């Protein structure tokens, strides 16, 4: 579900015409729907009611404090991967006691900070890290709560850059070896074993890999339960969303046949399918369940608004040059990912033309779409890059000395700036 739809010829987010937000705050501009984020959170929460569970939102997907606050107020915990993310969560009103700290390369300072704040668990990824956490906890006179991240060697069928649960990935500890590492953890005096964690990848659109991973890890958990007072099993995040046809408005008829085919090819993994797959085996296991969804909660809840700067007809192609670039949204360049592009002014007919939508950055990889059938657009017109709420702003950079874009949160008929646009002064502020 998402809350972007045409009304009276214009694209709206909830009750707000996107043109108004662009007029007020300029472009490129990220706009998020609070209603969509909360709807996704509540639906996942409700689907997991048969389990004792905690949804730990993966902060990396979108770390704006206003969004963290929305989720903290709704009762979410957080999956963090750095001291910076913990800082953001605490600033936004979240509690460390609901944070799990993941990542293969935690620094001494980060471990000290997380210990001092009292995180729910460190998700540990190697023996070396285990020893370091123990030493730091000893020096502080405390016990560090830990879970080991198991790598179940499951093929999640996703882009190789976002697959994490194969044995060749850097993440986690192999299933054949992890029991020995738990023994090591049990011998270290300043660690307290709390759980088991896994995460097999991102943008997974089929429930089967989740079922396979749980089935592979279940016997290990049974064995561990005999020895240690395990409290939780964190099944990670990774639930995929629809990128190709997120545009679920009443105006579907302006999709081209090509769009329609793409849409039916990638059927979404619904929350209901996901829950129906994971709840029975997890009930069987009987531990508290932690989940770490990022993209599912915020992906379809955000768009990147951009304005057409120039139209350029080259020998082979027509280029629509927009004011957003790969520095603002890097997913197409980095993962060849698809983002649906729709005009903010509703097209009045079914005319289409094949164009490349490109940004101003000096890289050939700076495109949002290639050979895409789009309604003809004019210079100055606004376009929305859909499903940009996850790993959009969070991965933005200042490449080409482009100031970071602004962000807006819509709640019903209100919209507010949740991050101001950087200025050119901001670009050099930290240099010395
Ligand atoms: N837990 C762990 C340990 C993770 O590494 C990740 C994501 C998540 C949870 C959240 O995964 P999600 O539910 O959002 O799929 N930048 C890439 C995605 C990278 C995901 C990294 N890890 C993209 O734009 O597609």
Q: Notable features of this structure?
A:
432 residues; 2 domains; Lyase, Ornithine Decarboxylase, Chain A, domain 1; 13 helices; single chain; eight-stranded parallel barrel; alpha/beta; TIM Barrel
Question: What would your notes on this structure say?
Answer:
By secondary structure, this protein is of the alpha/beta class. It has 2 domains: 260 residues, Alpha-Beta Barrel (TIM Barrel), CATH 3.20.20.10; 126 residues, Lyase, Ornithine Decarboxylase, Chain A, domain 1. Helix content is 31%, strand content 25%. The chain is built from 13 helices and 21 strands. Strands 4, 14, 15, 16, 17, 18, 19, 20 and 21 form a 9-stranded mixed sheet that branches. It has an 8-stranded parallel β-barrel with strand order 5-6-7-8-9-11-12-13, surrounded by 4 helices. Helix 5 packs across helix 6 and helix 8 runs parallel beside helix 10. The longest helix has 20 residues. It is globular and about 65 Å long. 48% of the residues are buried. About 4% of the residues have low confidence. The structure holds ligand LLP.
Rg estimate, integer Å: 23 Å
CATH architecture of the largest domain: Alpha-Beta Barrel
- Strand-residue proportion: 15-25%
State the domain count.
Answer: 2
CATH topology description of the largest domain? TIM Barrel
Q: Could you name the CATH class of the largest domain? A: Alpha Beta
> Which small compounds were modeled alongside the protein?
ligand LLP
- Unreliable stretches covering 5 or more consecutive residues: 248-266
- Overall average residue pLDDT: 93
User: How would a textbook summarize the main sheet?
Assistant: 9 strands, mixed
DSSP helix fraction: 25-40%
Distance between the termini: 47 Å
Number of helices: 13
Helix/strand-derived class? alpha/beta
CATH superfamily of the largest domain: Alanine racemase
Principal-axes shape call: globular
Say how many strands there are.
Answer: 21
